[in-house]
Specification:
heterotrimer, A alpha/beta (352), B alpha+beta (71), C alpha+beta (326), A: 352 residues, alpha/beta, Rossmann fold, 6-stranded mixed beta sheet, B: 71 residues, alpha+beta, SH3 type barrels, 1 helix, 21% helix
């Protein structure tokens, strides 16, 4: 087997239409960047899943970020991704223009140093992300506790993938197979998908982020789908170089030490029990009030963001797509984020 | 949802290490892995989340091998 | 010594600043007259451009805001096929700026201007409250020799697109500093005169040229495709990017195609001249890594043939290119 054979078989596919969800936003970005869709038969549809943390974060969270950034002696620190997401009254980027104090970070751990150097300022970290990023926040709190740095808070909108996948398996039965998020799987392990694969008899394939990885993953899902019914569909790990069956146990235990599960709001999916992570009560002093930020922006009635996130429709089937809603003037978060399905589709009109 | 790329550990002091990404030196926390100098580690947001066992070229060879095995 | 409000008062301190720093380095016949405006004798067709520079840090690996402010405007003039002749320089200095730093930057401007063959013939200085920073505006005039016609609307099917070197160096250098990532990435800040002269003197049929600054290659090729009403097909493999810069981009989730540069140009040339143009570029100091990266095709928009044979649209840059984790 080599990449040319895979590409040619995927291009030649003439069977029934198959829908494959790539759960992870970084996969979505890589798929577009390397033109993977243009290499597939029109019978294979790739659907972008809810794995862009920016897209599934509700507006109330952005509003809270902004209100901290406007407070005296407070600085909000964030990854660049969040800057353009609209809250009910504008984005962090706009707020910055109105005097909000917003700084960018590469890693939350560097904020412990910044906070230690500036004891008169409270640093509020916008803690967005999935399992891949959560250990970094846990280690940040660990370091802050160890060094007695108390002018640092986490405002979390942390989510876990499995409850969302469970929800999708239950509610979106048209999806035939899943390309599992590579770097979340590094943490949670490929075994995490076994129960879902068995229960719903669908292929779950863990893949890396090079276009070769993604094509191999899609190929493996298609091959599983074409095997006779009655043959078990299962979890295949095609990213063994980084993903262990059991995941990274140290990372899982550090997550558990600092965080506990709770209900979380997903744009498009709604409230899902135990799909969020919140600082444990013993670390409440480091929490910036992360619970209950569930209220979402009132999107125009025509906005189909929710349907796009779960793959019910393609972005260009939304009546606002490319018209009232475009990258310069985004309504739904799917258009805002560089990984949001609508934003990516808009940049690729003509290629689809 | 999570960008992570491999870098080579060039120094370690407790949980703090420096990783080299083609000449870019980044402070990396290695508290989640048992890394030693010379290891290639997968880094996300300043945190090493796993040790990579092979370089990219070998990884791709193995990928196609795995696909054959699964058939 | 630091800049204070009296340096912008128009009084004695201003005059001393003028004499000890600006006059010392920028000295030439026109400027030395110290009139309210420079009087120039110009004939024929000329190009006229302006640009403001606000970069922090003001001194970086490979250059400083002074060098940048001369190269930026000179390069803009060169891209129209003009021979840069005169510059003006406006300075906005923040209180607390070290005079020694200002002198270093002014000296750097003078040196760059001399290399580019332009005279700084008028200037202005203002002082504002702040934290010791400075901003520079330059504008410039260049003479366009008769018969020269270079512009974004001139491209047609079959033309080849050359880039004069590796992409992303300046942007990565500045961001490394801000994000605290250690590396040896050096800004590519440079005057592109030698490359442009080499192409034009050797009668390469240059349809259009652009310096690849803010917005990056992707944005600039879109502007050209729009203006010429044609499509542009980029070959992903052919885009030169230093491995160090590529890894830097990977760390922060950035795309070299949208990274800013300060010493790179793209030239669209007639197909038959492509190879010769490439060889000529590579002979110059700042064009050693030049490459043919794209061709002009029938159609609309800019797209890229990817490494594995796929294609994707390359749109203009929306908003700012922010470091991201996701």
């Amino acid at each position: 087997m080599n990449i040319e054979q895979i590409i040619s078989e995927l291009k030649e596919y003439k069977g029934p239409e198959r829908k494959i969800m790539e759960v992870c936003g970084t996969h979505t970005a890589s798929i577009f960047k390397s033109g993977v869709r243009s290499l597939l038969s029109s019978g294979i549809k790739l659907i972008s899943g809810p794995g862009c943390p920016v897209c599934v974060t509700p507006a109330a969270y952005i509003d809270r970020c902004i209100s901290y950034a406007m407070l005296e002696n407070h600085i909000l620190v964030t990854f660049g991704d969040m800057m353009k997401v609209p809250g009910t009254a504008g984005s962090l980027s706009q707020a910055k223009g109105n005097g909000a104090k917003v700084e960018l970070m590469y890693s939350p751990m560097e904020i412990v140093d910044r906070a230690e150097r500036n004891p008169g300022t409270t640093y509020v970290i916008a803690g967005v992300g999935f399992e891949t990023t959560v250990p970094a926040y846990a280690l940040t709190i660990e370091e802050a506790v160890r060094r007695g740095v108390s002018n640092l808070r986490l405002l979390t909108a942390l989510k876990t993938v499995m409850p969302a996948l469970q929800w999708i398996c239950e509610n979106e039965t048209e999806i035939d197979g899943f390309l599992c998020p590579g770097h979340v799987s590094v943490i949670i392990g490929s075994a995490a998908y076994e129960d879902l694969a068995e229960q719903y008899q669908k292929p779950f394939v863990v893949a890396g982020f090079e276009p070769e990885h993604i094509l191999a993953g899609v190929y493996d899902i298609m091959r599983q789908l074409q095997t006779a019914s009655g043959v078990e569909k299962g979890v295949h790990n095609l990213y063994k170089n980084a993903v262990r069956t059991e995941g990274n146990k140290k990372a899982m235990s550090v997550i558990e030490r600092y965080f506990e599960p709770g209900a979380a709001m997903w744009r498009g999916l709604g409230m899902i029990e135990d799909s969020g992570l919140y600082l444990r009560p013993e670390y409440a002093a480091y929490d910036a009030g992360s619970k209950g930020l569930d209220q979402d922006i009132e999107l125009p009635a025509a906005c189909r963001c929710g349907d796009v996130i779960v793959g019910r429709i393609n972005p260009n089937e939304c009546p606002m797509f490319g018209k009232a809603c475009n990258p310069m003037n985004p309504y739904g978060p799917c258009m805002v984020s560089s990984e949001g399905a609508c934003g990516i589709w808009h940049r690729n009109i003509g290629m689809l | 949802m999570c960008i992570a790329i491999p870098g080579k550990i060039i120094s370690i002091e407790g949980h703090r290490a420096k990783a080299d990404f083609n000449g870019n030196l980044v402070d990396v926390n290695v508290g989640l892995i048992d890394a030693k100098i010379g290891d290639y580690v997968l880094v996300h947001a300043g945190c090493a989340i796993e040790i990579m066992e092979k370089d990219r070229a070998l990884e791709l060879i193995e990928l196609f091998h795995d696909l054959d095995e699964l058939a | 010594m630091q800049i204070n409000m009296s340096h912008g008062s128009g009084g004695k301190a201003s005059a001393e600043l003028m004499k000890d720093i600006f006059g010392k380095y920028f000295s030439n016949e026109t400027l030395n007259k110290m009139e309210d405006a420079a009087v120039l004798e110009l004939h024929g067709k000329f190009a006229y451009s302006t640009d403001s520079f606000v970069v922090t840090p003001v001194v970086f690996k490979g250059g400083d805001i002074g060098k940048l402010s001369v190269c930026g405007t000179v390069n803009d003039l060169l891209m129209m096929g003009a021979e840069p002749a005169y510059l003006t320089a406006g300075f906005i200095l923040e209180e607390g700026l070290e005079l020694s730093l200002l002198e270093e930057i002014v000296a750097s401007m003078a040196k760059t201007a001399e290399e580019a063959g332009v005279k700084i013939v008028a200037g202005d200085t203002k002082v504002v409250e702040g934290k010791g920073g400075l901003f520079i505006n330059t504008s410039g005039i260049g003479i366009i020799p008769e018969g020269r016609n270079i512009g974004a609307a001139n491209c047609s099917e079959g033309d080849l697109v050359l880039v004069s070197g590796t992409l992303g160096d300046h942007h990565a250098c500045i961001l490394s500093n801000r994000m605290g990532i250690e590396n040896q990435i050096t800004s590519d800040c440079a005057c592109l005169k030698s490359i442009v002269e080499r192409l034009l003197e050797n009668n390469i049929r240059v349809k259009t040229m652009r310096d690849v600054t803010r917005g990056g290659l992707g944005t600039i090729l879109n502007e050209i495709a729009d203006a010429s009403n044609c499509g542009i097909e980029i070959k992903e493999d052919s885009i030169p990017v230093r491995p160090e810069v590529r890894s830097f981009c990977d760390i922060l989730g950035l795309d070299p195609v949208y990274m800013g540069n300060e010493g790179k140009l793209i030239a669209v040339v007639a197909q038959e001249d492509g190879e010769r143009a490439l060889a000529l570029m590579r002979e110059t100091e700042y064009g050693q890594d030049a490459a043919v990266i794209a061709k002009v095709v029938n159609g609309k928009g800019v797209y890229m043939k990817t490494r594995l044979g796929g294609s994707r649209i390359v749109d203009v840059l929306y908003g700012e290119g922010l470091p991201r984790i996701c």
